[in-house]
Design brief:
Elements (H helix, E strand, L loop, with lengths): L1 H28 L3 H16 L2 H10 L5 H16 L5 H30 L3 H29 L8 H18 L15 H32 L4 H29 L1 H20 L4 H16 L2 H11 L4 H18 L1 H11 L1 H19 L10
Helix pairs in contact: 1-2, 1-4, 1-5, 1-6, 1-7, 2-5, 2-13, 3-5, 3-13, 4-5, 4-7, 5-6, 5-13, 6-9, 6-12, 8-9, 8-11, 8-12, 8-13, 8-15, 9-10, 9-11, 10-11, 10-12, 10-15, 12-13, 14-15
């Protein structure tokens, strides 16, 4: 599991590198906001739509090279984008990077489930790797981009190549065993899986919404500095890492569906308290709690999806780790339009309502079938 958690961190670092680098394309290349949004869309399209297809492929064939290759391609695409001289080439490279991410997640999620067995705690380690990678991207990349310009994205090429090679060697040593032991023999339950996908989409709207607007809320609503706004975002992401780990351990004790319901329900008052926070400093503790609550269900949803589709763990991982999460991110521009007209407090208030929708949907999730 250690190999897969580290690989997940490296892979999702490149997902985080894209939004971290986009402001520098605007500043240095003078791209419009529309063009900048197009770069984010390229990465999202490459990452989201193909993931279920890669999941089906990973379930049908033993492809030990798929995850290492996907990770390497993700890093090469994002790393080379800063060196590309023209916008169309930047767009294509970010699309290719997204395709690499799409290839990695289903194969890695399937292999991680094999390594984890029935342990939600172990699966939470794998999911936490992705959260850590996404968190580290702006922390590590921003100073380099400030000092050296957008071409500094190329500095982050070596981790992708090195990690891809190490993961490939690991696959060779273990025989790439993502076959029958990673696939259960139970009955696939598509209706509960569709409901779970809906829960994940709604949860990801809340997550991406907070990721986008929490710093702006601190700056515009509280009048805080940019530094303190960035701190609020960092605290939220830190809470997300803690919540992902806590969710796995909780699921091993009280069950997956109860954990998803608990996390979804806890997110509603946590977000409401952030919206009503009396000040920017006091609000940091509240935004930490919101980060924990929102992410408690994350790894558990991945495992529960594989429980609902025991014969298709790669497909389940492709949807829960990729498609559903990315679709949630596509709703954020609508929140931005709301914030443009009514301010960030309105966007934060709507996030509270959206979190309540996730809670309602989670209530109807059935228990996984353990009799097969």
């Amino acid at each position: 599991m250690r190999h897969w958690a580290i690989a997940h961190a490296v892979d999702d670092f490149y997902q985080g590198l894209v939004p971290a680098s986009i402001p520098f394309f605007v500043l240095e290349r003078h791209y419009s906001y529309t063009a900048a949004s197009g770069l984010a869309l390229a990465a999202t399209l490459g990452c989201s739509l193909p993931q279920p297809l890669f999941g089906v492929l990973a379930d049908r064939r033993s492809l030990p090279w798929l995850a290492p290759l996907g990770l390497t391609v993700a890093g090469v695409g994002a790393g080379m984008a800063g060196l590309a001289p023209v916008y169309p080439l930047v767009w294509v490279l970010l699309l290719v990077s997204g395709l690499g991410v799409a290839a990695f997640h289903p194969a890695a999620g399937r292999a991680a489930r094999q390594a984890a067995g029935d342990s939600a705690s172990s699966m939470s380690l794998f999911a936490t790797g992705g959260s850590v990678g996404f968190f580290l991207a702006p922390v590590l990349a921003t100073p380099a981009l400030v000092a050296l310009g957008v071409g500094a994205t190329a500095l982050f090429l070596p981790p992708a190549v090195l990690t891809g090679y190490v993961l490939w060697r690991h696959q060779l040593r273990t025989g790439g065993r993502t076959g029958s032991r990673a696939t259960g023999s139970g009955r696939d339950r598509w209706a509960p899986f569709a409901l779970l996908t809906g829960v994940e989409v709604v949860r990801s709207v809340v997550y991406f919404g907070m990721n986008t607007f929490v710093a702006l809320f601190w700056i515009q609503h509280f009048g805080a500095s940019r530094g303190l706004g960035g701190t609020a975002l960092g605290v939220f992401l830190t809470g997300g890492v803690a919540g992902t780990l806590a969710g796995g351990r909780l699921a091993d004790r009280i069950g997956a569906t109860r954990t998803v319901r608990l996390g979804a329900a806890a997110a509603v008052p946590a977000l409401l308290l952030v919206r009503l926070a009396p000040g920017p400093t006091t609000g940091l503790l509240l935004v930490l709690s919101a980060g924990v609550a929102i992410n408690i269900p994350f790894a558990v949803l991945v495992k529960l999806g594989q429980d609902y589709l025991p014969t298709r763990p790669g497909t389940a991982a492709g949807v829960t780790l990729g498609l559903a999460v990315s679709i949630g991110g596509l709703f954020v521009p609508a929140l931005g339009l709301l914030a443009d007209h009514h301010g960030t407090p309105a966007a934060m208030a709507v996030l509270c309502v959206i979190a309540a929708v996730a809670t309602a949907l989670a209530w109807f999730l059935p228990e996984p079938d353990t009799t097969a």
